[in-house]
Amino acid sequence: MSNQINKSRLIPHNIFFVIPSWGNLLGYPTLGEYANHKVSKISQDLVIFLAGTECAITTEMGTLYYLFGLGYYYTKFELQSGRYITDNRQLTGLILSDFVYDHLATSINITLENDRDVIIGEKLFKVPIDMSFKSENKITFIQGTIMRNLFIPYKDIFLEFIELLRDPKSFQIDKNGHMLLSTSRDSYNKIMISGDMEYNAKAKFLEATAGLFGITLGAVKHLTENFTPPELQIIRDTILRFKDIYSSIQYDPMYLFSIIEKSAPFLRSGRPFTFNPEGDQMDKKMPKESIFISAEDRMNSFNEWPLNLKRQTKEELEKASIEKKTKLYQPHQQETLEKPAVMKLIKKEENFELRTMKRPFIEIKPLPLIPHENPLEILITLRKIVEEDYDIQTIGRALEIVRNNIKQKILHVNYLWELSKYINVYQRAEPNIGLSSKEKAELLRDIDNWIKITKQKFSN
Asked: How far apart are CA 53 and CA 22, in angstroms?
C-alpha cells in the first residue's frame, strides 16, 4: 500500500503504557502457531511500552496512531499437546488503526475518570512517567492501583522485560532496525521488522508465535513512506535515550513501581500537554479517553470496527480451534508400506528428534544446599543438579535460588534474563517430569556459557 502523508506531527509523550490482553483488544483474531504447531489456548498476551514519542498520520486508509519507545510483546500459551510455553518479542513501535484506537479509547475506564492524563481500564493502563505535577494523594492512589492491577499479578513478566532492557544486545536499533506491532490494514495483527536485521536475530524473530497472524519484513518501507528522515532521526534518538536510561536505572524488584519513579527524573523535559493533566474537572464526560495527545482533534469522531475483521470471544476462538495432534509431541504411527531410501532417512531423523524431546517420569527428590557467596560455585552446583536428573519444577526452584543468590553478589550480568526465562517455563511444568535429553543439553550449554562469563567478570 502506498500511503500519502497528509499530516505528520511527532510529539514527546513519556508514558507507561500497557495493554493487558492484545487478543482481547482485537477481538481474538487468531490463536496462532508456534514451532509449526497449532496453539490451542492463550492464557496471557501483554503488550508493555515505555514510550517517548507519539504521532498521528492521515493516510488513504484512515488515520494511523504511532507510539515509539521500548516495548515487549509477551505470550503464555498452550500447544495442542498440552504443553505450556512462554514467548516474547522486542518492540520499538506500536501502530494503531483509527478503529482500533477508538475501540480502545471508548473502553471502560475503571478509575480516575476526571484525570485525562491517567487511564486505568479493562483494556489499557496509561500513566505519565513524570508525575511531579500531580498531588501527593493522587500519586499514592496511582501507585497502589498500578501495583495491585499490574505489577503484582504480572511481576515475572515485568522482571523479564527489565532484565531484557539491561541486556546490551537488546533494542539495537542501529544494528537490527525497528520492530513494529501493527494493526494497520495492510499488516493487521503482525509484527513488522527490518530486512537489514542481523541474520541470526532475524531468523529467530521471524518464527511464528501465539496470538499473531505473522511476523514479516517491511518496517523500513512502512516508516520511510510515512516519516521524513528528520522525523526518523528523532524517533531513533528517543529509543536510544530510553535504552540508555532503562538499562542503567536501579529499581526495587519487590516494588516495581520504582521503575517509573527512578526513570522520571531523566524524563522531565519538554512534554507539551494539550489538555490540563491535573484533575481536569469536566461537567460532562468526554466521548473518548485521551490516550494520545495527537488524537485530541478527533475526540468527537468514531470509526466503527470493520465487518471483515470479525470480533469474537476467547472462548469462541479456543472452541473453534482445530483438534489436531502435532508431529513433535504425538508421532504418527509407522507406515507399513516400504518407503524409498530418502524417506526412510527422513523418518529416522524425525524419530530421533522425537526421542530427544521426550520428557521422562522422575521421582521428586530434595535439592542439595546451594552456595550463596561465590557466584562461580553457585553455577557449578546448578550444573550438577541438572546433570543428576531432577524434575523440571525442582530445577526451576534451583534456578530461582541461583538467580537470587547471584543478584546479591553481581549487580549486572547478561544471563540473569536468561535465568528468568527458564524459571518462568520450568516452574509451570507438570510434576514428576524431567527434562528431555535435548532440553537438558541446551540448559547445560547455557550454564557452561554463564560459568564462562562469570569467570571473565571475576578475572577482571
From this structure: 21
C-alpha count within 13 angstroms, C-beta hemisphere, residue 397: 12
Q: Exposed, middle or buried, 156 (CB in 10 Å: 0-12/13-18/19+)? A: middle
Q: Of 398, 379, 370, nearest to 453 (Cα)?
A: 379
| CATH number for the segment(s) 375-459 | 1.20.120
CA–CA separation, 161 and 156 (whole Å): 9
Q: What mean pLDDT is predicted for residues 180-194?
A: 95
CA angle (389, 390, 396) in 5-degree steps: 125
CA 377 to chain centre: 33
Residues forming CATH 1.20.120 domain(s) in the chain = 375-459
Task: For residue 148, count CB atoms less than 10 angstroms from its CB and return exposed for 0-12, middle for 13-18, buried for 19 or more.
Answer: exposed
**pLDDT tens string 45-65:** 999 999 999 999 998 889 999
pLDDT tens digits, 262-279: 999 998 754 444 454 444
